[in-house]
User: Fold this.
Amino acid sequence: MSAVLNAPVVADVPVPAFQPGPAGTHITVRGLTKHFAGWPLYEDFNLDIPKHKIVSVFGPNGCGKSTLINMIAGLVPIDAGEILFDGKSLKDTRIGYVFQNYRDALFPWMRTIDNIAYPLKLAGRSKAEVDRRMAELVASFDVRFDLNRYPYELSGGQQQTASIMRALAPKPEVLFLDEPFSALDFEMTLFIREKLQEVFMQTGTTMLLVSHDLEEAVYLADQVLLLTKRPTRVAEILPYADARPRTVETLSEPGFIQAKKRSLEIFQREVRR
Ligand SMILES: Nc1ncnc2c1ncn2[C@@H]1O[C@H](COP(=O)(O)OP(=O)(O)OP(=O)(O)O)[C@@H](O)[C@H]1O
Ligand SMILES: [Mg+2]
Assistant:
C-alpha cells in the first residue's frame, strides 16, 4: 500500500530507467545533449567506453571530438544526459587530462618536477608519498632529461612527456588525451606514442584519445570510435585486437591494415554523406 502512495505523481510519464553498459564498461554516456548557439552538436547520444582499454576518437573536422571528451571530463557542461564512471559520478572519479598544446599546459614558473608533482601536492599528499610516486613515474617513463629544469628549457617532446607524467601522477582511473601528438615532430611523436603504450601495458588505465591521424588512432586503439558529421552520432565502433606491444612491424600486419582500411571507408562515407 505504502509503495503505491509513494509512487511518482506523474505516473503516466514514464521515466526511462538508466541502461547500464555491457560487462566491462567503464564510462556510460546516456541521453547526452549539447547545443552550441542553438545548433545541435549531440542529441540523445549514447556510448559505452570499456574499462582498461584505449579508445581512439576519430571523425570529421568539427564533429565534436574535443567537445565529447571535454564533456566526459567535466570541462564543458552538458545540456542534458548522464555520464557515469563505474556507476559513479565524475566528482568521485580520478581523471587525468593531457592537452594538445603542452606549451600552455605546464606552469612556466614551476620547475618541471614541481609541475608533475602539482596534482599530488594539491591533493594534500605527504612529502614521502610525493617522492615515492615521483620516483615511480621517473622509472616507468625512463626519463633521461633533467626534471629540475623549467619547462621552457625542455624540448617539445620532453614537455609533453612531463604533461603526461603530471596527468598520470595521481593514478587516474581515466586518462583523456586530445591530440597529444599534434604539436610534436615525428621523432617525438613516435617516442611519446611508445611511452603511452608502455604506461598502458603497466597500468591498464582506461584512455580516451582524440587523434586526427588515422594510422595513429588505430595503432594505439583497442577500439576506434568513429563519429559522424554533426549532429554527431556514432558511425561505428571498430575493434582492433592485435597484441601489444605494437611495433613498427604491426603497421604491416594484415589485422592493422584491415582495421585502418575499414576506418577510412567509414570516415569517407560519413564526410560524403
Ligand atoms: N564554445 C563553443 N561555442 C560555440 N561553438 C562551439 C564551441 N566549442 C565548439 N563549438 C563548435 O562545436 C563543433 C565541435 O567542435 P569540437 O572542437 O568539439 O570539434 P572537433 O571534432 O574536436 O574538431 P577538430 O577536428 O577541428 O579538432 C564545431 O562546429 C565548433 O565550432
Ligand atoms: Mg578537436
Residues 1-5 have pLDDT under 50 and may be disordered. The chain has two domains: 23-93+173-273, 106-172. Residues 254-272 form the longest helix (19 residues). The longest strand covers residues 25-36.
